[in-house]
Amino acid sequence: FRRLIGYLTRGLFKGVIVLCYDRISRNSTDGALVKKLIRQGVDIRFVWANYEKNASGSMHMNADQMFAQHHAEITSEKVSETFEQVRGEGKVTNRAPVGYINEGNMDLKPQDPVRGPIIKGMFDLAAGDSSLSDIVKWANEQGFTMTPQRRKRTAEEMLMDEDDED
Question: Using N-to-C axis directions, what is the helix angle for 132-141 and 115-127, rounded to 10°?
Answer without folding.
Answer: 150
